[in-house]
Amino acid sequence: MIENRKFQFSINEQAQSFAKVYLVFDRTALTGIPFTENEAAYVLKQFEENELVVVNRYDELILIAFADPLKEQGVFQEQCRKRGNEISGILCKEKISGVDIFVPAVHPQTSIALAEGLALGSYQFVKYQSATTKKRWNLEKINFVGTEVSENEMDTLAVVIEAVFIARDLVNEPASHLNAVKLAESFEAMGKMAGFSTEVFHKDKIEALKMGGLLAVNLGSIDPPTFTVMEWNPADAKNSKPIVLVGKGVVFDTGGLSLKPTKDSMDYMKCDMAGSAVVASVMYFAAKCKLPLHLIGLVPSTDNRPDGNAYAPGDVIYMHSGQTVEVLNTDAEGRLILADALSYAKDYQPQLVIDVATLTGSAAMAIGQYGIVGMGNADVQTFNGLKQSGENVYERVVEFPLWEEYGESIKSDIADMKNIGAREGGAISAGMFLAKFVDYPWIHLDIAGPAFINAADHYRTKGGTASGVRLLIDFLRGLA
Fold first, then answer.
1. Which residues are catalytic?
2. In 414-450, which positions are buried (b, 16+ CB within 10 angstroms) versus exposed (e)?
3. Which domains does the chain have, with CATH numbers?
4. pLDDT under 70: residue ranges of the chain
5. Is the pTM of this model over 0.90?
6. The dihedral formed by the CA atoms of 262, 265, 267 and 268, expressed in degrees to the nearest 10
C-alpha cells in the first residue's frame, strides 16, 4: 500500500544532466548562461511575453525560468515552485529523469523552492492503469550546481517530498482497496519505515472506550472501525507536554441515510480521509528527520454508509466524553468521530492539539481550493505562527471566528447538542461543535477546499493534494 519514492538530490560544481535549468530574476539579463549571440537574442525576445523559455541544442536541453524578486517573499517563493512545476511538465514529455539547477547566489533559497516545484509536479498515481502508454514517468535526480544549498536542506526536502507523495497516494487510493482496517495497517507500515510507534484500537477496544460517535457512524458498515494512535517521542524533545495531531479518517462517505448526490459530491468521497493522511505523513516526516518534538497522532476511522442498521436522523448518541448528541444529519459524521478523538486527547494533557479534516462544504464554498479554514482557542502567537507557515509554503490559513453566537445553532431540545447547525456559517458551527470536546489549546483546520481537486493547480496535482502536510511540517519545525 505504501510506496516510498525517493528523490536523489546532490550538490556539484559541474552539470551532471542532459537538462539544465537556469532561474533568472531579470528578463533582460542572461549573465552566466553560456548562450551564443543568436541564442541570447532568441531568449530575450521570448521573454517579452513568456516566463519560461526552452532552448533545445539536441545534445542538451536548456530551460530559462523567470521569477520576480520584487514580489512579497511568500509569493516570490511560490513563483519559483510554479516555474519548477512547468519545467517538470516539459521533462515529463521528454521522459527526462535528471536535471541540473543553476540559481544566482543572490537568492540561493529559491533553489529549494524551484526543486520543490519540480518534484511535487512530477507526482503521478497510475498504479491501476495497465496500458503501456500510461506507465509511470519518474523524475529521479535533481542536482544543484554552484549554489549554497546545504546537505541538511536537501535531506529535509527529500523527506518532505516523500511525506507529500505518501499522503497523496493514500487519498487517491479507492475505497475498494482502503477500508478503515487497511488504513490503520498503512499507518503501521509508515511507522516501521520512519521509526514512530503505532497502536491500533479495534472495535472491542473502541466499544470499551465508549467512543459513541465513531461507533454510530460505523453502524451502517460491514467493515469494523479503527482508532490509530501514533507516537514520536525522541529523547531530546523540547516540549514537556506532547503536541497532538488528530486526523479525520472517513475512508468513504456516502452521507449515510442523509445520502449525498453522486455527481461532484459522493464520487470524490474517497478523499474524506485526507486529514488522517496529513497527520500520518507529518508523523512520518518527524520521525525520519528526528524532529525534537514529542508528537501524538490520533486517527478515528470508518466509512459512512446507509445499511440496515445505520444511525439515523433523530438518534441520540453518547460520546466518549459522556456528552449526548442529537443526530439531525448523518452526513455531518466527521465531527462525531473527531469529537471522540479530541475527547481522548485530554488524557495526554497536551501542549497543543491540531485537528485536520475535510469537514464541511461550507469551508470550501467560503474560500475555495486556495486556502485552509482555521479556528480554535489557541493563543494569538500560536495561531500567527501557523498562519506564517501557511505563507511560507503557500498553504495559507484563513482564521474564522468562534463567536459564541454560532453556538446557538447547535443547541438541542433533547440532548446536550445537535450535530449540525445553521447553513449560514456552517464551517464555524462545525468548529463550535468540536469546541465542546476540548479543554486545552486547540486549532481546527478544515481542508475541505484544497484537499482534493478536479484539475491540477500547478504542482498541486489532480486528485489528492496532501494540503496541510507542508503547512504542519513548517510549523512544527518552527517550534523545534
1. 260, 335
2. ebbbbbbbeeebbbbbbbbbbbbbbebbbbbbbbbbb
3. 8-149 (3.40.220.10), 160-479 (3.40.630.10)
4. 1, 4, 132-137
5. yes
6. -170
